[in-house]
Amino acid sequence: MTFVMNDVKISPDTKSLLFEKHVEYISNYGKDKNEYEYHMTEFLRMSGIYWGVTALDLMGELDKIDRDTVVEFVKKCQCPVSGGIAACDGHDPHILYTLSAVQILCIYDCLSEIDTDAVVRYVGNLQQPDGSFFGDKWGEVDTRFSFCAVATLAILNKLDTIDLPKAVDFVMSCSNPDGGFGSKPNAESHAGLVYCCVGFLSITNQLHRLECDKLAWWLCERQLPSGGLNGRPEKLPDVCYSWWVLASLTIMGRLHWISAEKLQQFILSCQDNETGGFSDRTGNLPDIFHTLFGLGALSLLGSDQLKKVNPTFCMPEYVIQKFNFQKRLKITMFLGT
Ligand SMILES: [Zn+2]
């Protein structure tokens, strides 16, 4: 039997973080409104802004984006009927963009700029009798939405407004014999969904439900000879999985189970030497999504050029500390269980 492994060759040329280039790349994001790309990415504009704001904050360069413009944009995207927030003014609200919006306003410390009671109502209305969450009114169910729901409510200090035990039971029903998690019961394990479920269990203070050694071993098997991490067996490595795998390992206290040095080399090789920004893998075009997750992973690996990132919320740790979410949550959960 031959063993087939998909991997990439990385160029060892780039050994350092192209800090200034990334700042320039991110602060120019969305500035040229005539660009084809700007219109093509309208459906995820809110998340794009969250990725950019978080990345710049981690680099200590948050003032490179105009705060008032961002806050005005977020306010316009809240639906006055459902309370949910859309990717862009005029689009339908979705729980993914609702979380991004709440994260942005939390970083800027101005959550009162939106109707947070309406956001809480919107999230609560998306919970289903089995504990799962719809992403929006169209009714798709996915463990990603369970994560978005509890992360949004945790930031707003309103976790007690949903049926938490049922929400936890649903996420646990999506775990697999390999220790990982899928998008719904019996769905294949995937590193991105592992992150959502581990993050969910961390927020709801239920990490003891995990088989940490088994899951961490599955996550470590995602590292390929190039140093990069893939999301599932036999897939190519991708910078965004650096974040999802590393954040999950960090939450479980097992970051040291993978080769940090090789992963760092892989991530640095995905920087664009000319324009700045990170791509999914060496030689591809950069985008804002992979730029945040590349920087986030480097922060988890201990980069001294970046602020510390919180592995659960993917926001700067100082923001999480300021609002003390996790401490408050533990109190809520002990009372509730
Ligand atoms: Zn990716």
TrEMBL record:
InterPro entries per the UniProt record, alphabetical: PGGT1B-like (IPR045089), Prenyltrans (IPR001330), Ptb1 (IPR026873), Terpenoid_cyclase/PrenylTrfase (IPR008930)
GO CC terms, sorted: Rab-protein geranylgeranyltransferase complex
Gene3D superfamilies: 1.50.10.20
Reaction(s) catalysed (UniProt annotation): geranylgeranyl diphosphate + L-cysteinyl-[protein] = S-geranylgeranyl-L-cysteinyl-[protein] + diphosphate
Record-annotated Prenyltransferase alpha-alpha toroid domain positions: 18-315
Leader sequence segment: none
Keyword line: Metal-binding, Phosphoprotein, Prenyltransferase, Repeat, Transferase, Zinc
A Pfam family reported for this protein in Swiss-Prot or TrEMBL: Prenyltrans
Keyword Transcription on entry: no
SUPFAM superfamilies on file: Terpenoid cyclases/Protein prenyltransferases
GO molecular function: metal ion binding; Rab geranylgeranyltransferase activity
Record EC number: 2.5.1.60
Cofactor: Zn(2+)
Family from the record: Belongs to the protein prenyltransferase subunit beta family.
Function of the molecule: Catalyzes the transfer of a geranylgeranyl moiety from geranylgeranyl diphosphate to both cysteines of Rab proteins with the C-terminal sequence -XXCC, -XCXC and -CCXX, such as RAB1A, RAB3A, RAB5A and RAB7A.
Quaternary structure (record): Heterotrimer composed of RABGGTA, RABGGTB and CHM; within this trimer, RABGGTA and RABGGTB form the catalytic component B, while CHM (component A) mediates peptide substrate binding. The Rab GGTase dimer (RGGT) interacts with CHM (component A) prior to Rab protein binding; the association is stabilized by geranylgeranyl pyrophosphate (GGpp). The CHM:RGGT:Rab complex is destabilized by GGpp. Interaction of RABGGTB with prenylated PTP4A2 precludes its association with RABGGTA and inhibits enzyme activity. Interacts with CHODL.
UniProt cross-references to PANTHER family, sorted A to Z: GERANYLGERANYL TRANSFERASE TYPE BETA SUBUNIT, GERANYLGERANYL TRANSFERASE TYPE-2 SUBUNIT BETA
Protein name: Geranylgeranyl transferase type-2 subunit beta
Species assigned in the record: Phlebotomus papatasi (Sandfly)
